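This section describes the prediction task in plain terms. A model, or a person checking by hand, is given the sequence of a single protein chain and must write out its three-dimensional structure as a string of tokens. No templates, partner chains or ligands are provided. The sample shown here is typical of the held-out split.
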Amino acid sequence: MNFRDFYNINSMNLTKITIITLLSIVLTRFIPHPPNFTSLIAISFYIPLFFGIIYIPIVLFCFFVTDIFIGFHNVLFFTWGSVVLIGLLSKYFVSLGFKFRILGALSGAVLFFIVTNFGVWVTGSYGYTISGFFTCYLLALPFFTNTIVATLFFSILIETVYNIFNLEKKLKFQKKH
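The expected answer:
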């Protein structure tokens, strides 16, 4: 039994999912935080995992809304593109256990690092040389560390909330029967 079957999520209200996603993203993007320490990767992975890849546009919409206030930048489409790729990646982890889902979210962080830093290099920030290419990725490593830690933190938080909700649902079911 996967998430969607257990919770009959297809019947959930789209507006509620959008509001919850938006609030989750807003909280971690607007509250002061270390660079790249946000829920971006975890949200991009878990929303499609729980609700289906059809909800990837909801995640993109929420990032668009927050980017209106934070500001648009020249690698925005690489950032949003990585969100789509991470969401698509999540469908392969739906029926897997906790450890594999965490690894899936962390692989999303690696994908984000590769795609967005390629975008930085393509914009010419480090020159169009092999040296500039490697410099771009090398200088991004401290940000990548924060991305990995944040993805791990928010993924464990999401998994914990899921497990608490799952336990409560099972206990209510047992009381009825």
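For orientation: The chain has eight helices and no strands.
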